[in-house]
Amino acid sequence: MILRIHDTYQRTKVEFVPHDATHVQFYVCGPTVYDYAHIGNARPIVVFDVLFRLLQRLYPKVTYVRNITDIDDKINARSAETGEPISEITARTTAQFHEDIVALNALPPTVEPRATDHVAEMIVMIEDLIAKGHAYAADGHVLFNVPSWDEYGRLSRHSRDELVAGARVDVAPYKKDAADFVLWKPSTKNLPGWDSPWGWGRPGWHIECSAMASKYLGDVFDIHGGGQDLIFPHHENEIAQCLCDKPSEGFSKYWMHNGYLMSEGEKMSKSLGNFYTINELLREYPGEAVRLLLLKTHYRQPLDFTKSGLDEAKRELDRFYGALRGLNVPRVEGDPADAVVEPLTDDLNTPLALSALHASLRDLNNVADPDAQSVAAQSLMRSASVLGLIEQDPEDWFRWRPANAGGLDDDAIEDLVRQRTGARSAKDFATSDRIRDELAEAGVVLEDKPDGTIWRRG
RNA sequence: GGUCCGGUGGCAGAGUGGCUAUGCGGAGGACUGCAAAUCCUUAUACGUCGGUUCGAUUCCGGCCCGGACCUCCA
Questions:
Q1: What ipTM was reported for this prediction?
Q2: Which helix (H) or strand (E) holds A362?
Q3: Which residues make beta-bridge pairs with A69?
Q4: A333 lies in which domain range?
Q5: Confidence (pTM)
């Protein structure tokens, strides 16, 4: 099966030809750990999780590297602001991040390197860049010299002149060229720092991904991913660093970038405070609804993330889990349906894949024979798994309730259901309906099936 | 100013040079003690102005609107 992806370098869809067909390797820029991850962070996590799942179906071995950025001036600023030690901020935030994305059913990457563990590699790369004439030390800083490399700007399609003309910040006096960017900068004694040939200091932002990608994936690998906003300057600079360091190698063969997010119709902005953190959404909605909402839009399209969208995603999942509920079909390994995989091989067309999943659901709902049901249900589940959906126990899905939700607990509900069942068998429909109304009031919906009554939280 | 992306039915959202996805919601029907769930049926669409074409929502151009990026925000 041929995989086609949109390559940012070429700005077009291309056939994916791995560097090594027995072992596909890709790198995605992970979070900077200073605060709760927001929904904008969740999109690349979910999108590239689908890519990971798909690649695992198509190739024998896949290595997925996603870093944790735990050196950053935002972290330092947060620590200065709150007094919490940097190591505690990063440890706490990393743990929170992991907890959040597990709820989104994202598989762990193969390797999750942290910047602080790779400063030595960064220093080596910086030394090489200086030796090769692409970087220079000045005033305790080391800077990458942009005019030293002709190809600079190829990914983002910016020329050096445009960049300088459009610059929003003053040019630091130690820069040879206005477009030069920092590889290493000095630290004061109350900031995180490491000994280096240029004194006590810390790395610039871009060098960490270059160093970690090279370390875990080698000098050439297949795909580098991230949010669209990383194209410039982050990825542009990563490319410059790696290709200048190892001119004969290719670095990443393909680049994939997910589109930006809006929130409730407005652009997300920290100053407006109108972004949702994953954590706060998880108190109100199941993580799977968040995941589905993100996958309902193609990854390169803009996506307006809304709570009404989450409500809709949850209703959709109710249908899937409702069809599987009570079937007790075991999960077995097997191939997903082509109708679901094929759209994914066309640049991760998740909306089209989801429509095939809905067709599969209809098929399941249209069969009555238990054997046929079992076959249809397994097919549905296997297909959904490529998207990381419908992987939980349906009972758990229907019993999920928001954090701090009031109302009835499971035992209280089941007690009322039993009372109602008694009333119904006595043909006391007045009592039966009264109990139904009472439960409905508490957000519980009943379904009378031939073999008994089941309930769910609506 | 530069670079780039998008505008599809009430909403979400694919896709295609002619056969007009899918979902949510709405309407009608079947089923049900009543419901719910499910199934069936159904309505409503491609920003705007031109061009190419036998034919354009789909290709080309102008315009309008929205958004992103332009030195550290996914």
A1: 0.92
A2: helix A350-365
A3: A32
A4: 283-399
A5: 0.95
